[in-house]
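Entry 14. Ran structure prediction on the chain below.
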Amino acid sequence: MEEIVWTEYQFGELLSYEQPTPYIVESTEYNDNYPIPVLTPGKSFILGYTNEKSGVYDKLPVIIFDDFTTASRHVNFPFKVKSSAMKILTANPEVVDSKFIYYRMQIIDFDCSTHKRYWIQAYSKIKVLIPPLEEQKRIVARIEELFSELDAAVATLERTKEQLAVYRQAVLKEAFAFESTRVVEIQSIVSDIRIGPFGTMLHKSDYINGGIPVINPQHIKNLSVVENENISVSLDKANELTSYLLKENDIIMGRRGEMGRVAAITKREDGWICGTGSIFFRLKPEYDADFYANILSSPQTVHYLEENATGTTMKNLNEEIVKHIPVPDITRELQYNITEALEGKLSVCDKIEETVNTALQEAEAMRQSILKQAFAGGL
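Output, structure tokens:
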């Protein structure tokens, strides 16, 4: 069998570039019903759709290349662009297949940590080995065959995640169906409901590293508190905010944006601070924070909060709204029993979701492995 010779080229010898200025969209009032996509090389790719008819790029296929991050996308449909922070790259069809060189770019290890343009001075100078065109097309076909199989597996994993989310909501809804139970407003089972300190009491300049954590909505995830050591304050500042110190068996809730972000305060978070974007409930001793945190994150309560929150651009809660949240008034023993049964079912969901997330990460690593094998002659 005749040996296939791979020849060394610089990217700049294989790809000519064009500045995107003539193709920049004039209006960013996008509409999904418009025909022309507006692109970026980054993760979002399609920013929206425009009805502008002039300045549409249609000399296809091309690679759009972010001049600052070196992210790239292969494009084979007419488009416009959002900004000039990119290059439009066209492959020399006599030497290289555009899909082949695009895939080769995806495994370039390039340091783009400095904020500057890279194509002309650096990236275009990178040297790569290129086989004859016929071999390039064979490799591209094999890559896309393997990617198609991988995409099918990823789609199955994503559907599994969606089904888990539906199951999780069903479990919560069933657990908290209290038709024959006394339902009260939450204000009757707490001794205090309080919004975190106003901005005049707690400024960004007060934050230090490694102090007493301040808990804002972004730190409330999956019924737990996930603190950021950079969002914390000194002991002196905490002493000024004693009215907002959290205690074990409190519940903290995000009061802005996504509704239903709550967590029970454990011994670990005792003495931490309720942030400006949060609100806390101080339960009476006969009520368990773990149980009522699940209640406050349930589909029924989320629906109540979304219906009653103020604001259009961003939903907001206040004491007046949340004090009327309906909750079951049951014995502590029953609270514990329900929480234990619920955690058993949800822990199964958590384990499956963890497995799915690991598999998704492995799928992305497999994608890189396929490309590396392809350009090492392994396909």
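The chain has a mean pLDDT of 92. Will compare against last week's run tomorrow.
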